[in-house]
Amino acid sequence: MAVRATVSRFPIDSDAQEASGLPWGLTVTPFAAKDENGIGPACGSNGHLLPRCENCYAYFNTYCELDQWAWNCALCGTLNGLPSDAIARYSNPQSIPEMSSSFIDLELPLDGSEEEMTQARPVYVAAIDLSSSEEFLELTKSALLAALEALSPGSLFGLATFSHKIGLYDVQGPIPVVKNVFIPPDAESSLPLELEDAMPLLQFLAPVETCKDRIAAALETLRPITSWGRSSGAAQGMDGVLMGGRGFGTAMEALFNYLGSEFGSTFALARVFAFLSGPPDYGRGQLDTSRYGEQYASKRVDADRALLPEQTPFYKDIAAIAVQSGVCVDVFAVTNEYTDLASLKFLSIESGGSLFLYSSTDDSTLPQDMFRMLNRPYAFNCVLRLRTSTEFKPGNSFGHFFPDPQYENIQHIICCDSYATYAYDFEFADNTGFAKHSGDQPVVQIAFQYTVVVPPEGLSNSEMSSSSRDKHTLQRRLRIKTMQFGTAKNINEIYDSVDHEVVLSLLVHKVIVASLENGVREGRALLDDWLVILTAQYNDAFQLVPYKNGNKSISSQIDITFSQCPQLEPLPRLVFALLRNPLLRFHEEGVHPDYRIYLQCLFSVLEPSSLHCGIYPTLMSYSTPDQVAYPRHSLSRAALMTSGSPIFFLDAYTTLIVFYSSTADPSIPFPPPQECLLRKTINQVKQERSITPKLMFIRGGHDDATAFENYLIEEQDVDGSGFASAMGFVSFLDDISQSVAEYMNT
């Protein structure tokens, strides 16, 4: 569990917090194996015996004062008695995790019998769009063959297809058999037949270890539904013209209900991989994609605002069915046509899954992403709870979870991998703030309760009976991290303790929320205003501008680059880059609404360093493929020209580019050799990433360098004509300086 705060020294009260101009909060990556310093938790068992405060329900931790019979809660100060079993345990503190570390991970007893817990097998279902092309199906087959290699023995796999009908495959016999259920074309009708009646679920779900070859054989039989093949079931328009045939919504709803019958007995979590090649246009949940082609400007409508909300609650509603059925949905959209991900995204983000978007089949990393996703550990049925000491409390929470309907500050996460990150901001409970002369420090405690599936090889022989050697076991665990923070005596101490990457994370969450509620223009305005106010507060705090009301000449005296405070220096660049990112660029600039939604979903789960890389890419230079010249450059042509280096490596999180300058010595091998330092760096970056980045090699003077030059945003020529059609970084700073002067004068 990695936790990072925007400031390591908290503001003393609400006035100090407001005067700083900074967001106050933290990010947490609960299922990360190590903490933010690379240290793992102290592990143990009997998590249910961990003492809890009878007032605030916080867990006992190393910051609590302990005497022989009682302990003081570090969060609320309540004196709690110790039960007799705890007194006996704590008499030998060296062997007790909660006595030795503030970061612990304890096993909890499971509800239910031993038999039930060993029956829980991982279940995976692929739902494939047949209203597609041969290329799409070939890519999907490659991805699923990669997935089959990543699945652990004992897993169950189901293969389904959808078009104007749902196809269920039985691969447990000598040859694959498919049963079809036709989908009614209108948006109101349900299926004429339950999927369970078409094929019993346990016939549909095949054991991977014995049926892998037959699953692969079934995949080879898949063909796109041609207009001939679907004319019998698809809706006929005027003059018999085919009107559609991608019944995605009906298929998803039926699959969730189908799987739900075995939730809690055959499986504890089922993952559905939905492969989609275009918008749902048939049956329930069909979407009107004509709204993308509308001329919003002529109607005086903000296109960005019109295309960001969902057009139907259908997918949000069936995501709730998925959650109740123990199903996590990953959506893989391979399409360059408008698919309205704004409506579809709820399927994945509300069920704990991921949303992937690939604009074409040619260079798609879908097979690598599937393999990578299934190869990493994940937790499910998770509950995340953040508690604070009494002077402050959590405000907003951000991330792909759903809040508990009954209790405050409890979030439920259906499925959580080691990359998934969530954010909170804080506010003071009242006007008092933290006591200036008290020895009590602000405390934050994060508790994460989760379940993991332990494969048979993960258990010791003593834990296994002979009958359970091929079965998986569920383990319920409780991970707790308790942190104590200092308080800042003045604003300088706040500024000196800033973590700019966490500040960026909270800003990105806030502008995404503002964009979804009020449009992209509002999100941009929020960001701009924030930087103006922060700059003004900083200049005021350091008394850098001897201004008077109405003094128009103060803009030249304003320190816009935060030269007195190194921790704040990166922020103007990060805000500039965020404003240039497709997340906040306008519809009329050519930003596809589906790509914007994809970025919102991706950026909402990235930990701070990865998000920094996605917003302001890392650019480093090499003098040879084996020698780094400079570890970091600004994203400008001037930086490239003044460095004189022949090789540049740009990491934009989703894309990696190796660029050889046109003046590079021809004797330097291109592309870089496999064993060189640059290649090793690339491989390490790819290995540590949650998605597979696209890798490009560009030779200046020989290849089209547009893809690389588009990232040089500080002197942006977005139309490639050589004339700046977007504001560069220097002009941006001038504009902010003028706005700060106006703000300080008023």
TrEMBL record:
Residues 499-611 form the Sec23/Sec24 helical domain. One of its GO terms (cellular component) is COPII vesicle coat. SUPFAM superfamilies: beta-sandwich domain of Sec23/24, Helical domain of Sec23/24, vWA-like, Zn-finger domain of Sec23/24. Residues 121-373 form the Sec23/Sec24 trunk domain. PANTHER family: PROTEIN TRANSPORT PROTEIN SEC24, SEC24-RELATED PROTEIN. Belongs to the SEC23/SEC24 family. SEC24 subfamily. This is Sec23/Sec24 trunk domain-containing protein. It comes from Microthlaspi erraticum. The lineage of its organism: Eukaryota, Viridiplantae, Streptophyta, Embryophyta, Tracheophyta.
